[in-house]
Specification:
The chain has about 180 residues and is an alpha+beta fold. It has helices spanning about 5-15, 20-30, 35-45, 60-75, 90-105, 135-150, and strands at about 110-115, 115-125, 160, 165. Strand 1 and strand 2 (about 115-125) form a beta hairpin. Helix 2 (about 20-30) packs antiparallel against helix 5 (about 90-105). About 10% of the residues are buried.
Length: about 180
């Protein structure tokens, strides 16, 4: 009964490649995951920078313009949480990248079918996420990881993420 509709949706999504594009940018813009980013944030705050710095300021249009300008010229390289040369400007860049990744993780996809045209696939609900929600996301991530590790029948702390076996290594309770 629903098979023709499911096939039409699948064909429209595969034809548009929108899911591949969204997935690529979700991964590219989130190299640390929330727990690594919170660790970097805490280290910067502990260094005496404080919340009066531009690091903690909510994101403005100019910030997004600068991010896009830098990101489109030279995609940043992942150095790891303990990588050398992590400066406030790089951390701010990673925060903005994470917020864009979060926006892509929360977007909606609309498919418009018409008898006279190919299906139109549109991404909507691309509202910027506020920096102030980072702690809440970190706690939610921690709760999911804890539930995963405590679940019945768990044979190992690995998960399959797009064909890559991942092991959750940072279960720091400070998140």
């Amino acid at each position: 009964m629903f098979r023709p509709w499911i096939d039409a949706v699948e064909s429209a999504l595969r034809g548009s490649r929108i899911l591949d594009t969204i997935q690529y940018h979700q991964r590219r813009l989130d190299p640390f995951d929330i727990e690594g980013l919170v660790k970097l944030w805490d280290e910067e705050m502990a260094s005496g920078v404080g919340f009066g710095s531009n690091l903690a300021d909510e994101v403005q249009l100019e910030d997004w313009e600068e991010f896009v300008r830098i990101d489109s010229k030279t995609p940043y390289e992942y150095q790891g949480p303990e990588g050398p040369g992590m400066t406030m400007s790089k951390l701010r860049f990673y925060l903005l990248a994470y917020l864009l990744s979060a926006m892509l993780k929360d977007c909606s996809i609309m498919i418009r079918f018409s008898p006279k045209q190919d299906p139109q696939v549109t991404v909507i609900d691309l509202d910027p996420k506020p920096l102030g929600r980072m702690r809440g996301w970190a706690q939610k991530d921690r709760d999911v990881i804890t539930a995963f590790l405590q679940s019945d029948g768990l044979s190992s702390p690995y998960c399959d993420d797009a064909g890559h076996a991942l092991r959750h290594q940072n279960l720091d309770t400070r998140i």
